[in-house]
Amino acid sequence: MKEKTKKIPELLAPAGNLLAGITAFEAGADAVYAGLSKFNARERGENFSFNDMSRLVAYARHHSRKVYVTLNTLIKERELPEIVEFLAELGRFRPDAVIVQDLGVLRIVREYFSGMEIHASTQMGFHNSAGLQVAARLGVKRVILERQVTLEELKIIRANSPVELEIFVHGALCCSLSGQCLFSSWLGGWSGNRGKCKQPCRRRFYGAEGNGFFFSTQDLSTLELVHEFKQLGIAALKIEGRLRKPDYVRNAVAAYRLLLDAEGLPGRKLLGEARKILSGTYGRKWSHGFYSEQSFKTLIKHETPGAAGLLCGRAEFSDARGFAFKTAHRLCLGDRLRIQPETGDEGPALTVTRMAVNGNFSPKAAPGQECYIFCDKAVPLHGLVYKIGEDYADRTVKPANLPELRSALDLQLTVSSTEIRVELFNADGLVWKRALLTRPARTQALTPARVVSEFTASGSKKLRAGNIQVDIDGAYFVPASELKQARRAFWDWAAANVDLAAVFSDNVAALETFRKDYLAIGKTGIDAAALPETIALGRRSRLPANRKAIKAHSIFEMNRLTDEVILPAFCPEPYLAGLRNMIDDAYGRKIRRFRITGLYALELLKDYPEVRISAGFPLPVCNSLAVQELAALGLSAVQGWIELERAALTELAGKAVLPVEIYRYGRPPLLSTRAYIAVKGEVKDARDQRFVVQEDRHTHIASVYPRKVFSIPRLPGAADYYDLTHADWNAGELDSFNFDRMLM
Hints:
The protein is globular, with a radius of gyration of 28 Å. A hairpin with an 8-residue loop joins strand 17 (336-340) and strand 18. The protein is built from 18 helices and 43 strands. The chain starts with 9 loop residues before the first strand and ends in a 9-residue tail after the last strand. Helix content is 25%, strand content 24%.
């Protein structure tokens, strides 16, 4: 069997369900990424059952494609045992990789499920070459880069990367830097970092000089850049859209497949053909996203609504049975619609199953006709009606008919001059052997790769080959027919002698090992409350009354009073050298305390002796395994993740192997972006919730801050952190965020 050559770049498509995954493969995707029912960044989507995931992986294996499973959310302490059980079950399918965000989950996969390849989610925020060095130390095979990296930055990063790189090339864009958005969580506990974002950035906001959709970005489309990505050797080009339907997946994959398969630089005709295919995806207006500084300025068109799709009209009438409007475009039964309220809030979505045109039932409507759509959802009057998809019946594979993945046998094959012997690692040590016709090889000696290739083809409906290891004790020539007969004889024997219930997985042992290790953590005995409080100060902040408090300043504003330097969360590639110089300057001033807010900073600090490194917002620490990982990287203290509720913070502090600090007071940025925001100062939404938009004069990153000041009480067993960079003491309006409610 000839080995397939690896395609670079790999075309990676979203799979919100089994049909979307199969559609992606049929359209030409090399791999898909998909989530199970929990612990993924699109929990609002349909997602996969374990049975459907089994079918998807089986289909992918048969067609030499890949499946990556998303476990890319933040995990609370009490959820750790459950996610380990999740991983043990997932291990039966042996996905080609798992995509992770949480440092604790990353540690679990690496230490207990080492057979799984790790891809770092874009939510981990890796955005420069220093961060990629840290990712490699963590055992990451591939990094999905932060979306707010320019093409010029990407070129430098790619040249200095020790890991594979994956980039987004198409689909919806978040306005905020990945992994740093608290906007949805602040407004009700629905965390984007846990797959439950309510997309408040798509709403209309009101400022002193007018109103608009100030944080709603256009969609990403990079057809013109595909050739350049190929030349750079990017490992994978990723299409966003696990909440989208199969028709979107089919069109997006087909358009990018067309350009990836083109020889040389694609001409105008080919690009035009790809754009025509892509027009069927019904998204927002296209842009190059963050791939150029010029596109930063035009990425947000605040005058237009943030809804995706083809605008078909406005709901002119609504009652308990449905709604009416005059359509500007053709509609058919099976089409999908979304009705966007005037506020910009997320509106109801539905599939057209029954429709009346000019008072008569009809399967379709032409432009200019009056339509009444029957539905049982509350439709906002005067809401904009968008077509967001079409029925997709043109498919060759019926997902319900697909077989589930067969049980995998891990094999140790030993070849001698007289026999071939197979030991089954995961079936109670069963052994099979057979006489083998060989002769000393002059040329074409039998190789392990040839044996693996042959024995991979099981021919069984219930069993398949898992991991195969081969030892050959000499140089032998084995006729192809002889090897085939041996393979058939082995799989016939396996079908008759292997009890499927007796096939076990290393993941079961890993699960038990984790349980023992986790129970052994216990109480750490760390008295974090005995540590001095830390106060982050801005340029105009008053000095703390507590003289023993640690005075922390941004590295851009350190001065003679600074005890601790705070490093920025985001440092573009061209500014790394300058930041290194500033760290060197701080160290020369005898500063030995540094606070990292992004993992990349560990690479910049690794060569400085006797420094004390702590982690602070927005570097998320939600569980004790994440603390263990940071301790192994040399940290002395961590800050509990600001989104967590009281119980989750208490549980984290009780299990942590390092002192845990709590962010008790301040105005944290709810959203931060490199995009140009057309409003400054105070804004409010339709519910009169108020925010402040401000651009950092050093980094030029714009952030949205709450008008209310976050404030929570002292937590026993934890140190205190106060952030006065955007807040003053004794603020009038306070908010406890999720502290006294459950983070979703």
